[in-house]
Design brief:
Blueprint: E1 3-9, E2 16-25, E3 28-37, H1 42-53, E4 65-72, H2 74-85, H3 88-92, H4 98-112, H5 117-121, H6 129-132, H7 141-154, H8 156-167, E5 173-182, E6 207-215, E7 220-227, H9 236-245, E8 252-256, H10 266-270, E9 275-280, H11 283-291, E10 306-309, E11 316-322, H12 324-349, H13 357-371, E12 377-382, E13 385-390, H14 392-399, E14 404-410, H15 419-427, H16 429-442, H17 454-477, H18 479-483, H19 495-503, E15 506-512, E16 515-520, H20 525-534
Parallel strand pairs: 5-8, 8-9
Antiparallel strand pairs: 1-2, 2-3, 4-15, 5-6, 6-7, 9-14, 10-11, 11-14, 12-13, 15-16
Helix pairs in contact: 2-4, 2-19, 4-7, 4-17, 7-17, 12-13
């Protein structure tokens, strides 16, 4: 009876397995070839060779099958593959370079692991991320992170130009907003880090200001880091100049948050040909229009948006809106602050001893500054005593405007955009706010920032922007998954949970009868659905 075996030939460029049988004929051992196995790595050929011998899994040998070196694989492979689908690798640089792969590792790592660059470099034992990006073994944070960040920053203008060309077009809405992010430690020599209006509520921390530019759909296309004490309005002119000169956009509908289009920059902006702006007015600007008797507060309505054209400038359209939820919140907040103010002022007024006017004035000033209710209080000091009363007419006038806001459109004709469309366009700034939430808390954790060099701070923020760019596109692809999700306690899917499910797909090394090879876990149905929506097939 013939016996079959696999002969492995390794003298060729690629190993080849030859299936042979041995038999006796007239007392002599002879061999016959039955086929060839090509295209398989040597380890798999050895495994098949062992199978032909029948000793793949010997009985009663606990060491015959071993798994080891288990690493996260699914999330890293999926995010990296998806980023390459977007063409991000060639956007970073046109030719394959190791620093580009290192940046892709940091971009994917920001989505999957967040944390510092040092902590990501230490993940090499736990994840296949760095190996998929061409780094075998231990990761050197200086070479594979910091030096790569320096190269990335050199390419920022070119990268953003490519993204703008892909996602922006003449005449389209462009969304722009700024936020702040605090830093840890001291930055005495920094030209970026400074104290300013802190949107994080972190008192005593210096900060930077981040300006983010997005398409009308909310896709990020550009980011800039400003000094921590920078005001919103001072960044607008430079950003519009950037869009026109760097990105080649001659017709722009610039959408910015309230206070960005101010008296300090309006004269410059209104003379720019092809520029239209949509923003919201500040409360002082609203009061100024009411003082001009341009409209009455009764025009603000919860259901119907009224529109008024400025008779002194026919290019200005004011869309009057009212949000009932905001109105209730503002009314309740003012009531609570007035109650706290009243308690503190009564303590001062009922003090058993008289006091100097200067001391009483200082105490009153601190109370009114703390609760921001000075405009509602009339007070004076007579004979060492505080006398005060509430300006009820001021409170009533303020209450009439609770929840009211005005969206102002300049150089946007009614033919190009109806009243409701103007308001909807302004509300699209919520997409930029969503980006900032992802930057700060939800997924990417841009803060706190520990980098000490200004260029590294800029590169860190740019990396987070590119990570959000990938995440934004992933979320779009995953909409069918989110759309069919349940609600309340039965709700299963969020972007974070998608990443966690993909992280459960692991790659392991297997030792089978002395033969070692790698294997990737088989995705479960829900993981398979995620991968299919992302257009990713595991290798």
């Amino acid at each position: 009876m013939a016996s079959y075996h696999l002969e492995i030939q390794t003298h060729r460029k690629s190993p080849v397995g030859i299936i042979r049988s041995s038999f006796r004929e007239q007392g002599k051992v002879k061999h016959r070839s039955h086929g060839r196995l090509t295209g398989l790595p040597l380890q798999k050929l050895k495994l098949l060779q062992a199978a032909f011998r029948g000793d793949v899994l010997p009985k009663n040998d606990p060491n015959a099958l071993q798994t080891f070196a288990s690493k996260e694989y699914g999330a890293s492979f999926a995010v990296l593959h998806f980023a390459k689908q977007l063409g991000l690798h060639t956007t970073l640089y046109s030719r394959p370079q190791q620093w580009v792969s290192d940046c892709l590792a940091m971009i994917a790592g920001r989505i999957i692991y967040a944390g510092s660059k040092l902590s990501l470099s230490h993940q090499w034992k736990n994840t296949a991320l760095w190996e998929l990006c061409g780094v075998e073994g231990a990761v050197d944070v200086d070479i594979h992170c910091y030096e790569a960040m320096d190269r990335l920053l050199e390419r920022q203008d070119a990268i953003q130009h490519t993204l703008a060309a892909k996602h922006l077009a003449d005449g389209h809405l462009v969304l722009y907003d700024i936020t702040s992010s605090y830093l840890e430690g001291e930055y005495k020599e920094s030209e970026l880090v400074d104290f300013g209006y802190n949107r994080d509520g972190k008192k005593g921390h210096e900060q930077i200001v981040i300006g983010l530019l997005c398409s009308k759909e909310g896709c990020p296309v550009g980011v800039e880091v400003f000094r921590g004490n920078t005001k919103d309005s001072t960044t607008v002119m430079g950003k519009i100049t950037e869009m026109r000169e760097r990105y080649g956009l001659q017709k722009i509908i610039f959408v910015g948050d309230r206070g960005m289009i101010t008296s300090s920059n309006i004269d410059q902006l209104k003379d720019i040909e092809g520029l239209a702006t949509i923003s919201a007015l500040t409360h002082p600007q609203i009061y100024a229009l009411i003082a001009r008797e341009l409209f009455q507060p009764e025009l603000f309505d919860e259901k119907q948006i009224a529109e008024v054209t400025d008779p002194e400038d026919l290019t200005l359209r004011y869309c009057l809106c009212r949000n009932p939820e905001t109105a209730r919140r503002e009314t309740a907040t003012r009531k609570r602050l007035m109650e706290l103010t009243q308690v503190e002022l009564d303590k001062i007024a009922d003090a058993p001893r008289r006091s100097l006017p200067e001391k009483l004035g200082a105490r009153v000033g601190r109370v009114l500054a703390k609760f921001k209710c000075g405009k509602f209080v009339q007070w004076e000091v007579r004979e060492g005593r505080l006398h005060w009363k509430i300006k009820q007419e001021k409170i009533d006038a303020e209450k009439r405007l609770d929840g009211c806001y005005i969206v102002c459109a300049r150089n946007v004709s009614k033919e190009a955009m109806a009243t409701n469309e103007v308001v909807v366009s302004y509300r699209k700034l919520e997409l930029v706010e969503s980006a900032f939430r992802n930057f700060k808390t939800v997924q990417l954790e841009v803060r706190p920032i520990y980098h000490k060099k200004d260029d590294r701070i800029r590169a860190h923020v740019f990396l987070c922007t590119l990570a959000y760019y990938v995440q934004w596109h992933m979320i779009k692809r995953l909409q069918p998954l989110f759309a069919k999700d349940k609600e309340g306690k039965n709700r299963q899917w969020s972007f974070k949970n998608v990443i966690e499910r993909l992280k459960c797909i692991r790659r392991e090394k297997v030792r089978l009868s002395g033969v070692e090879f790698q294997t990737v876990g088989t995705p479960e149905p829900d993981q398979e659905e995620i991968l299919k929506l992302l257009g990713v097939k595991l290798k």
